[in-house]
UniProtKB/TrEMBL annotation:
The chain crosses the membrane at residues 24-42, 54-74, 112-132, 138-161, 168-186, 242-260, 308-329, 349-370, 397-418, 430-453, 460-488, 494-514. Keywords: Membrane, Transmembrane, Transmembrane helix. The keyword Transmembrane applies. This is ABC-2 family transporter protein.
């Protein structure tokens, strides 16, 4: 039984070994270790424990990349086969459910674990720099491997349950929120409600929140890393977090195996697609006119006028809820809930929420810019239209930008009624970095659009991971620029080179996007 199941996994491992990009990626990871080592050496005169600083950077970089892999790499293991409708073909080839799960997910987790293990000899260099012990390095690697097992198998369970990759990604994000953020948020709310007299410490809800927070703390890899990296750590390599993550990962894998046939028996993706297309045809009441692609993006990608109205109501409701609710609580309570609810602070909080909404909408629309054309294989037809390719792309961009009108109006409304809320950004000490943040976000959107043409799912995770890697690599060079120019030029000696490099990178990515679009059109 297991010999037949391991055939597909063995084939996937052999294929992975023969791929050049796999080994190139591993060498890039090793090179990144040396670049961060160089960064720690540059700042060694200002830091008491440069070895600990070097190892801490590597550990948290690994944590974020593993988390992003769980969101965009592990969560699409089975859903990509559902969407391509290739699961029946794999089953006809005699591959059982266990073989599919081992070959599609376990092999992926082994790739990440091998990358972590390959870093181990080079991480030992941190011992020579001082501030870290071999026990801390070994315990951290074991904790990260257990975290890989947990997130890989939990993402696999979400992928088996979901019909689409988007649904699986959302479920993984919810799971990460429940594990890392929800305990802290619920604990703070419980403490504040107890301070106000609404809850008693011995009631069921506070006791449940306390137990939940303790459980999440015990199995949290972030808390485990903080404990290991503390001064004078002499604990064991294996603890509750390692055993708990491994057991939870095994439970998730067995659950996915048990329910695999039930959730993959029928594929409803095509039915849902037909229903959504029929609904869009019923709702369509206008004609495209001369700007056909702009009209198409506005109505089919962003949702059209109906979604525009819903978002307008939603943003207005958020502003009224934050401002009105904050003032109401401040007037009817003797002690503040989280902070003092002044008018400017509430408007400032609303402005931050609107900016978060703007970033989220831009990210979603950019990732979907070329998705339908790729899925329906319409790029060859687009290239033969009597319009330039640049015009078509910019029409699609402006069509998506038209959906940003509600959040743009909300931001403008907040600035209009309270100009001080906008000037708070300039008075917060980051005024010179606003331009840099803006161009970095534009660069991120270019990366996201490019990766959406490279991978079917997980473009967002790849784009975020690339930005994290680029920022990590750029850190030592920024430190050199600061040392050379901070006296004569000031902080502009760092900001201006990064700004210009980001502009050049955006231009290069535009060329790569155009090249990739023509390549896809030629292949299809």
């Amino acid at each position: 039984m297991f010999q037949g199941s391991l055939i597909f996994a063995s084939f996937a491992l052999k294929k992975d070994i023969r791929l050049k990009r796999t080994h190139i990626f591993r060498f890039v990871c090793i090179g990144l270790v040396f670049i961060i080592l160089f960064s720690s050496w540059l700042t060694s005169s200002k830091i008491s424990s440069p070895g600990l600083d070097f190892f801490t950077k590597i550990v948290w970089l690994n944590f974020w990349l593993i988390t992003l892999a769980g969101i965009g790499f592990f969560s699409t293991a089975i859903t990509e086969e559902k969407e391509e409708e290739t699961l029946p073909l794999l089953k006809l080839a005699g591959i059982d459910s266990l073989g599919l799960l081992l070959g599609k997910s376990t092999v992926r987790s082994l790739r990440i674990i091998l990358i972590l293990i390959s870093q181990l000899p080079f991480l030992m260099l941190a011992i020579a720099l001082g501030g870290i012990t071999p026990l801390q390095i070994g315990a951290t690697i074991v904790a990260m491997i257990a975290y890989v097992i947990l997130i890989a198998n939990f993402s696999l369970l979400c992928s088996v349950y979901s019909r689409r990759s988007g649904e699986a990604i959302i479920l993984v994000l919810i799971g990460l929120f429940i594990l890392f953020l929800a305990p802290t948020i619920l604990t703070k709310i419980s403490v504040n409600l107890q301070a106000r007299g609404y809850l008693a410490a011995d009631e069921l809800i506070p006791q449940f929140i306390k137990a939940y927070q303790q459980f999440a703390h015990e199995i949290s890899v972030t808390e485990r890393i903080k404990t290991i990296l503390s001064t004078g750590y002499s604990g064991s390599v294996f603890n509750t977090q390692v055993v708990g993550n491994s057991l939870l990962g095994l439970i998730c894998f067995i659950t996915a195996w048990f329910f695999f046939e039930r959730f993959t028996m029928t594929n409803h993706v095509k039915k849902e697609r037909k229903m959504s297309q029929n609904g869009e045809q019923i709702q369509r009441k206008s004609r495209p006119g001369k700007l056909a692609f702009l009209w198409k993006e506005f109505h089919f990608v962003t949702g059209g006028k109906r979604v525009l109205i819903i978002k307008s109501i939603l943003y207005i409701s958020v502003i009224l809820f934050v401002v009105g609710g904050g003032l109401f609580l401040d007037q009817h309570s003797k002690m503040s809930f989280l902070f003092s609810f002044s008018w400017n602070e509430l408007i400032h909080t609303s402005l931050l929420l609107m900016l978060v909404g703007l970033v989220a909408e831009c990210t979603i629309y950019t990732s979907r810019l070329f998705r339908e054309e790729r899925k329906l294989k319409m790029l060859p037809l687009i290239t033969i239209l009597p319009h330039s390719f640049i015009r078509i792309v910019y029409e699609k961009i402006f069509g998506c930008m038209s959906a940003l009108i509600p959040v743009g109006m909300a931001i403008g409304f907040l600035i209009l009624i309270a100009p001080d809320s906008f000037t708070n950004f300039f008075n917060s000490g980051i005024n010179s970095l606003l331009l840099l943040f803006g161009i970095q976000f534009i660069l991120f959107l270019h990366l996201l659009a490019f990766y959406s043409l490279i991978v079917r799912w997980g473009a967002l995770a790849f784009a975020i991971g690339t930005m994290i890697l680029v920022e990590s690599v750029a850190t030592p060079f920024l430190q050199i620029l600061f040392v050379l120019f901070h006296v004569a030029i000031g902080e502009a000696g760092i900001i201006l080179p990064v700004f210009y490099l980001s502009l050049i990178s955006c231009f290069i990515l535009q060329l790569l996007i155009a090249k990739r679009l023509r390549q896809i059109a030629a292949e299809e």
